[in-house]
Structure to design on (455 residues):
C-alpha cells in the first residue's frame, strides 16, 4: 500500500523499530528510577550498614579528677610484736628458716595480707595524711541521633556513680599507698610477686574504707572516627539526663557542644525484634584500642561485630534487656545495636562473667532496648532527627551500589562539605572518584531527568 501524500508517519517497519526503541528507553528510565516505589527502610548488606552508620558512632572518654586524702598507715608496736611472734612460731615449728631473708619477707607479707586490717590502722594523729591529686577515665561508645549533637550512651560510661569513680581514683595511688604500708611495717623489701595482687587488693580495700574524696571534676570528650584519642582533644559533651548503671536503666543523653550537621542514626522499634533476628554492633572495643601488638598512635575507627537476638531477660530494675551472641567487650558499652535496616534497636550495655574464672563469657551480652532510651529522650525534651549529612550519604551509597559513581562522588562531596574531616566519608568519596577514574561509571545520561541529583 502506498503512503498517502503529506503523511508523516514512518513506514510500518520503521514504526516497529521506533516503538521498540521507545520501549527500551522507557524501560531504561524505569530502571533509572529503581527502588522509587519501595516504601520504608530496606535490608542492608553488612558492608553498606557499617559504611553509612559508622560516621554517627562516637568514642567517648569520660574523665574524672579530684583530690584523694588517705590517712597515713600505722602499724602499732603491739601489732608489730604480734607479727614477729607469728613469724617466730613458724621458725620454732621448723617451717621457716630465719637466715633466709626472702623466705622471712614472704612469710611476713603472707601474714600481713591475710590479716591486713588487724595490723594496719589509720595514723592516730589526724594531721598525718597522704594527699594525691588523681585522675581517671572511662572509655565507651555512643551514637548521635540529631544533627546538633544529641548523643546516646550508657550511664555507666558518662555518669558513673561514686561507687565506680572513687575506687578508680584511689586505684591510681595504689603504688604509693603500698609503699607507705611497707614502711609502716618497717620493711624495705619488695612485695613478693606471687602476693602482689592479693596485697594490693587489701591496700585498695583499706583505702576505700578510710579515704576521703574531695570535689570531683568531670569532663566528657567525644571522638569521631579517624581521630586520635587524646585527653586534650575531642568535642566536649554535657550530660543532659541520665539513668543509673545496671540493674538500673543504664542510659545517658549527652549534648555535644557547638555541633551542626553531625551524621545520625535512626531509632527503630525494639518491640518487633524476634529471636534469631540478625543484629549488628558498632563500637570502640578496648581490646582493640589497647592491644599492644597494634600501632598506638593510629587514628581510631569503629569495629563491627554481628550476631543474633538470643532472647529477652528481665532485670531487677524493672525492664528487660536484649540478649545477643554478638561479640563485644569493654569499650563497646553505649554503642548502637542495629537491625538489618540500619535502625538502632538497643545500646550495648553489659556482658557476662564466668563466676569460676572471673573471665568474660562471649556470646552472652545484653543491650538496653531503644524503648527505654526513648523514655530519657522524652524526659529531656529531645528527640531523634535525621541529619542532612546522613541523607546525602545514603543517597551516595544508593548511587554507588548501582555503579553510578559520578553521582555517588557528588553526594559524598556534599556530605563532606556539611561535616568536614570525617575519615569514613572521605574514604568513600575517594573510592567513588577512583571508580570514575578507572572508567567504571555506569550513570545513564538521562538519569537526572527523573531523579534528584546533586548540583
Amino acid at each position: 500500500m502506498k503512503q498517502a501524500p503529506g503523511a508523516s508517519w514512518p513506514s510500518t517497519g520503521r514504526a516497529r523499530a521506533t516503538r521498540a526503541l521507545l520501549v527500551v528507553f522507557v524501560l531504561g528510565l524505569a530502571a533509572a528510577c529503581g527502588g522509587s516505589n519501595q516504601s520504608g527502610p530496606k535490608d542492608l548488606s553488612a558492608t553498606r550498614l557499617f559504611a553509612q552508620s559508622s560516621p554517627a558512632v562516637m568514642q567517648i572518654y569520660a574523665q574524672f579528677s579530684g583530690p584523694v586524702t588517705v590517712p597515713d598507715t600505722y602499724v602499732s608496736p603491739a601489732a608489730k610484736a604480734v607479727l614477729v611472734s607469728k613469724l617466730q612460731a613458724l621458725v620454732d615449728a621448723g617451717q621457716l628458716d630465719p637466715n633466709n631473708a626472702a623466705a622471712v619477707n614472704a612469710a611476713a607479707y603472707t601474714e600481713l595480707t591475710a590479716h591486713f586490717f588487724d595490723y594496719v590502722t589509720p595514723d592516730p594523729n589526724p594531721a598525718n595524711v597522704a594527699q594525691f591529686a588523681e585522675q581517671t577515665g572511662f572509655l565507651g561508645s555512643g551514637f548521635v541521633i540529631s544533627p546538633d549533637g544529641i548523643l546516646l550512651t550508657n550511664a555507666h560510661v558518662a555518669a558513673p556513680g561514686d561507687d565506680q569513680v572513687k575506687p578508680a581514683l584511689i586505684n591510681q595511688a595504689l603504688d604509693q599507698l603500698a609503699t607507705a604500708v611497707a614502711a609502716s611495717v618497717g620493711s624495705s623489701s619488695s612485695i613478693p610477686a606471687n602476693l602482689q595482687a592479693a596485697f594490693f587488693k587489701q591496700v585498695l580495700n583499706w583505702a576505700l574504707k578510710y579515704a576521703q574524696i574531695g570535689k570531683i571534676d568531670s569532663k566528657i570528650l567525644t571522638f569521631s572516627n579517624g581521630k586520635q584519642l587524646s585527653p586534650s582533644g575531642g568535642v566536649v559533651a554535657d550530660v543532659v539526663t541520665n539513668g543509673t548503671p545496671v540493674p538500673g536503666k543504664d542510659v545517658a543523653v549527652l549534648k555535644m557542644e557547638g555541633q551542626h550537621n553531625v551524621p545520625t542514626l535512626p531509632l527503630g522499634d525494639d518491640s518487633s525484634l524476634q529471636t534469631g533476628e540478625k543484629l549488628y554492633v558498632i563500637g570502640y572495643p578496648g581490646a582493640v584500642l589497647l592491644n599492644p601488638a597494634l600501632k598506638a598512635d593510629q587514628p581510631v575507627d569503629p569495629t563491627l561485630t554481628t550476631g543474633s537476638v538470643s532472647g529477652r531477660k528481665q532485670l531487677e530494675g524493672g525492664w528487660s534487656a536484649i540478649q545477643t551472641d554478638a561479640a563485644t567487650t569493654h569499650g563497646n558499652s553505649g554503642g548502637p545495636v542495629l537491625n538489618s535496616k540500619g535502625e538502632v534497636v538497643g545500646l550495648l550495655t553489659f556482658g557476662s562473667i564466668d563466676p569460676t574464672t572471673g573471665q568474660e563469657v562471649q556470646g552472652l551480652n545484653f543491650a538496653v532496648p531503644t524503648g527505654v532510651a526513648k523514655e530519657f529522650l522524652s524526659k529531656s525534651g529531645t528527640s531523634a532527627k535525621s541529619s542532612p549529612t546522613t541523607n546525602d550519604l545514603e543517597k551516595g551509597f544508593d548511587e554507588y551500589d548501582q555503579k553510578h559513581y559520578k553521582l555517588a562522588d557528588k553526594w559524598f562531596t556534599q556530605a563532606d562539605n556539611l561535616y568536614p574531616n570525617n575519615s569514613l566519608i572521605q574514604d568513600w568519596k575517594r573510592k567513588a572518584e577512583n571508580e570514575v577514574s578507572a572508567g567504571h561509571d555506569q550513570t545513564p545520561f538521562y538519569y537526572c531527568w527523573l531523579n534528584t541529583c546533586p548540583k
Observations:
- The radius of gyration is 32 Å.
- Residues 387-455 form one domain.
- The CA atoms of residues 130 and 176 lie 9 Å apart.
- The chain has 15 helices and 15 strands.
